[in-house]
Amino acid sequence: MNDGKAYTGIDCFRFAAALLVIAIHTSPLSSCSAPGDFFLTRIAARVAVPFFFMTSGFFLISRYAKDNEKLRVFLRKTAWIYGGAIILYLPLNVYNGYFSGRHFLPVLFRDLLFDGTMYHLWYLPASMLGACLAWGMVRKMGLKKAFLLAGVLYLLGLFGDSYYGIAGKFSFLEHLYAEIFEISDYTRNGIFFAPVFFILGGIAADQTARAENGFHRGGKGGRHSAEIQAAEKPEQKRLSAKYFCGFGIFFLLMCIEGMSLHRFQMQRHDSMYVFLPPCVYFLFRWLSFWRGGRRKALRTSALLLYLIHPMVIVAVRILGKITGLQRFLIENSLVHFLTVSISSVFFAVLFAGLWDQWKRGQKMQYAPGKDRSWLEIDRDNLRHNAKALKKAMPQGCEMMAVMKAEAYGHGMYEIAACLDQAGVKAFAVATIEEGIRLRRFGISGEILILGYTDPARAAELHRYDLTQTLIDYSYSRHLNGQGCDVKVHIKIDTGMHRLGFGTEDEERLLHTFNMRRLHVCGIYTHLCVADSQKEADIRFTDRQIHRFYGLLERLEQRGVKLPKIHLQSSYGLLNYPGLPCDYVRAGIALYGVLGSSYDQTRLKLDLRPVLSLKSRVVLLRRIKKGESVGYGRTFTACRDSRIAVLPAGYADGLPGNLSGGRFSVILNGQMAPVIGRICMDQLMVDVTDAGPVAVGDVATLIGQDGEKEVSAPETAGYAGSITNELLSRMGGRLPRIAAS
Ligand SMILES: *Cc1c(COP(=O)(O)O)cnc(C)c1O
User: Fold this and answer.
1) Could you read off the pLDDT of 170-220 as tens digits, one per residue?
2) Is 404 among the catalytic positions?
3) pTM reported for the whole predicted model
4) Closest CA relative to residue 344, chosen from 23, 90, 79
5) Which atom of ligand 1 is nearest to the CA of 571?
6) For the chain, which terminus, N or C, has the lower number of CB atoms within 10 Å?
7) CATH class (in words) of the domain with range 611-738
């Protein structure tokens, strides 16, 4: 799942696009063919920057993004890059006499906001402005209307760019554009140019998500996933071919457009064409079918290439002068282009490597949030578990990652984002609020609500494209009566007697399948003793399984096209592998632990714990034999002792009944028992035998430290509970930090 899912094609083309930008600035064909050069640098290479914008939009703009977290991160990052680039080019600015010009301050303001302080840097403010406009417009009016509005802006921009010849014929237009050019040298900027591409990126993301997560594929009810997969391959090829043809056609049209405009001398500048947006859109969609490994280095290098190449151009010029090779190095445009490109690539790759190393060094030095107690989330282990579970599933079966209760205390956002990147397409939550939050985070895959949602909230289910579980017949009728379309999965009660239709409810089920407003995309049941290896429990589970498949068969015989089916959660998969189905709802196993430490499972997978709980010694004190510690004076020292205070308590999710010597933490590589009662915010441990412990030392409360381990299932066991409960209570207050 990990491999084969990242957008390799898009990453690769970003690099190519950066080379195209170098071509724009070096005109490689100018010494052999003027028309060829015009075609390459004024038309073909113009797809490059819009492609960058669209890529940013693809990951940034979403109809669901109601909180602006992603936007803020994007703006902050781009602003840093912009700041760095401005400083990098300061010497050149000074050399060019930038600061001695008249109207220095207004010019600086204009450049900072629109044109960039160096000719190619306009891209960065345009990114920021364009992203803000696009994001705001999509949020206010939705994708479609925002696209139309951005289209109008683009149209306005066209007449200040390659269609200026037309605007020049009308004096009021000429005046209008003269005003515009007062504040920005071009219309190719963050207002007229960038937004439409950002929004196209958002549209592409939306459509990709929809294509991969169809609104029940193939008629009411959908089909089995094996069938779908088989059908999907040629379908994908067909689509990919379609986008490629689209790109070809629009590229050709754009060439004709550019040549004609050139011929009639319409152009003031040549960045904007009518056929450029569709051309870039089809190119992007076509490339998005090329999936594979992540190419992060390529991405960073592409950006660096873009940023530094003008510097390299200057350097090559100076080099030419010094060595007297001007004629060869500079006047031969092709050699010039190649020299600049190769040197730029060299430096970009070098800097990308250095940057990567620096970032890694940073991570180890700087650890915000680790001053009190914290949860460490190991995403490598999460990805590993997801992969291991996926491997254990039958072919065609997908993972449905269970995200309820803050992803079992691990942090819903971090976990969902990580799994989303790793290619997981389906998620399950317990409540509609959790579902809406996932959507707002930008998760575009299927989101199934496992529990009850008030039917009166059907409109929200629809708006956020959430899938609701039907818990019985009367609930289904209520939901159907709300007047809006809702995606649903039907729950079947096969013996747990919690939620679901009875297996004898065939007539009502048939009714439900035909309800006008309900789109049945799935049918499922839940096993209630799949964790047990006792003979009676195995018999019970077999009966549940049998009942479920029996019902499905009867429904099929009565003409129902079966939607997606699922019945196993973690233990279902581990103890009853190989059942034919479309999803496994993986919760606890995904987080790398079992419910309790005594459990044995038939499948033995290498699952690795994702969560650790750590805390820092804030105070050390000595007490005399006979003195007591904590509330209720439940602990009395039987010897002179050394006590450490850790700032973690039951309000942090550590069960209070771990008090009284039932639980030890790892400190300085030794086990140190918790003494006295665990308080709301603190606990005390006896470190008399733990060697040299100092204030500031890190204690491991759950997790591994060297040889020693305190596992979550063990800890849950001491507290008389199971891991699921222990973890899901964790972290209302604790910060979550990625393990390095
Ligand atoms: C919580 C839940 C799961 C996940 O269970 P795990 O044992 O954690 O894998 C699956 N299905 C339903 C209906 C659930 O409520």
Assistant:
1) 888 888 898 888 888 899 999 999 999 999 999 998 888 766 654 333 333
2) yes
3) 0.64
4) 23
5) 7
6) C
7) mainly beta
